[in-house]
Structures are given as structure tokens and as C-alpha cells.
Amino acid sequence: MSQHYYSKNPQTTSKPQEWTYTLRGEKIHFQTDAGVFSKNEVDFGSRLLIEAFEESSVVGPLLDVGCGYGPIGIAIARSFPQKKVHMVDVNLRAIELARKNAARNNAENVEIYESDGLSSVKEEGFSAILTNPPIRAGKETVFRFYEEAGMKLAAGGSLWVVIQKKQGAASTQAKLEELFGNCRVADKKKGYFIFEARKI
To answer: Within a 13 Å sphere around the CA of 146, how many CA atoms are in the beta-carbon half?
Structure first.
């Protein structure tokens, strides 16, 4: 069986590494490893999503779906210390790294746990859900993320998605329009689109 960053237990030989990245004006220290997404740096799409994100006045926690080793959730948690940030991933190695990274960056307002999509997320009424979806897992999986997010958002809350044009931005935009009745391009750069769809 081939191993992917969306495998539950990556069998790839562990090769830990550490580095620092500036996100939303803060230096954040990361430990990463083989078998997790974008292990050498915070990927461009995630960086664009992190910088583009704007929190609304809607009351409720935040959620990072497919958090990997934690760049999106931790950066957002550091920016909004008054908000609880849930971070979920199916990859157990990524979850362990995300917990370590949250601790070393003093992101105390996070809750990090295993979940296939949003299947294990019990909380409801999120003010925003962010995802850099696992495109290689297939459109069916990605669209399930969007559908489940719609059910977990508070009224007025938003789903924020980053996706490349060549990896299905048009079909994601159409799906979000279908699910939410709206979808705006919050930012776009180098072939990446940031979509915001609001639950009305």
C-alpha cells in the first residue's frame, strides 16, 4: 500500500527536522517529519490562507481541518488568543507533531485530535472553518469536507478554502456555491485561490 500524508499511520521512516517561519507577523517554530504534508516548509497555499483569513464577529470557536503538523491552526490560534481553535487530521504522526508545535509556541487555546474529515468533531457552531484540503485523497473526500463543514458552522460563519487552479479551483467554487449559495474569492496568487463561503 502506498503511503500518503493522509494515511492514518505513515510507515515512512521518521526523519525529524526543525525550522522557523514568520506567519501573521509572528515567528513560529516547527518540528516536522517524513510522512506529513509539506515537511520542508509551510507550503505557499497554507501561507496564503493564513494571511488572507479574517475573523468575523460571529461568536464561536475555529476549526482547522487537515491540520498536518499545525501551521494554519497554530498561526490562527496565536492571532486570536481569545478563540478556541480545534485542529484535526487523520494522520497520527501529524497530530503528534501538531501537539508538540502548539506547546513549543505557547498556543494554549488549541484542541488537537484525530478525525477523518469532521467525523470526530463533536463541537458545533464554529465561527470559521479553514482547510487546505487533501487534493490527492480525491474530489469525493474533499467535497465531503465542505459538506461536513456546512453542518458544523454557526449561522454567519465561514468556510475558508485554499486550492490551486490546476487542482480543481473551478469545481470547488461551484460546489461551495451549491452548498452555501455564495462563494467569494478572498485572495488569489500564483495560481492559488482562497475561497470564503458564508453560511447564511
So the answer is: 28
| Pairing of β 126-131 and β 153-164 | parallel
CB atoms within 10 A of CB 31: 17
Average pLDDT of the residues in 17-45: 88
Closest CA to 16 of 33, 40, 41: 33
Distance (Å, whole) CA 165 – CA 192: 6
Question: How far apart (Å, rounded) are the C-alpha atoms in residues 67 and 42?
Answer: 12
Residue 96 has pLDDT above 70, yes or no: yes
Cell 516547527 -> residue? 30
CA 78, 80, 82, 86 dihedral sign is: negative
Number of H helices, E strands in the chain: 5, 9
